[in-house]
Design brief:
Elements lengths: L1 E2 L10 E10 L4 E9 L2 E10 L1 H5 L3 H16 L1 H7 L2 E6 L3 E8 L6 E6 L5 E5 L5 H15 L2 E6 L5 H10 L2
Parallel strand pairs: 6-9
Antiparallel strand pairs: 1-5, 2-3, 2-8, 3-4, 4-5, 6-7, 7-8
Length: 167
């Protein structure tokens, strides 16, 4: 589900925060994923092109801006930065996959019951094992599976499906 920026419900807590993830379809979209009490919020806060965004170092700048806003204002700060927000209810998540690879940045994929997955490369430093454990704990409480895999996690078919769905 895609929405204009939608904040967390009052009293809702963020259980897992994935900072500076990047969706690989064009334009590249820098985002933070907030796994809250009752749903996942994917807050896209910067759009980048490979030549003018990545090559000129704008991704770290976008990450710094988002981290500062989160530190100062919590999730509300990220929502204020948002270009677009996806709200995903846990009942529609089939599973979350994490990938750890020596060849590529860590990846997180959210497989949906209906439709293509959401897929992101994580550009911030992350302990993938700890991230997977936190997601497993949340998944046990919210009804979705979590799989930890090694490898790159690239699927050309899923990439095309995500691109066509704007994910």
């Amino acid at each position: 589900m895609t929405h204009s920026p939608e904040a967390l419900r009052p009293g809702s807590a963020v259980h897992v925060h994935v900072h500076l993830a990047v969706a690989g379809s064009f334009p590249l979209r820098a985002c933070d994923l907030l796994f809250a009490d009752d749903r996942l919020h994917i807050v896209e806060h910067a759009y980048l092109t490979p030549l003018f965004g990545l090559a000129r170092g704008r991704l770290p700048d976008a990450g710094d801006r988002a981290r500062e806003r989160y530190r100062e204002d919590g999730p509300a700060g990220l929502f204020e930065l948002a270009e677009r927000t996806h709200v995903v209810h846990y009942e529609s998540i089939e599973r979350v996959r994490t990938y750890d690879s020596r060849l590529a940045r860590p990846k997180l994929a959210v497989d949906m019951s209906n439709g293509p997955p959401y897929g992101y490369r994580i550009h911030a430093p992350v302990d993938v094992e700890a991230l997977s454990a936190a997601l497993e704990s949340l998944g046990d409480r919210r009804g979705f599976a979590v799989e930890s895999r090694s490898g790159v996690g690239y699927s050309p078919g899923n990439s095309v499906r995500r691109f066509l769905a704007g994910r």
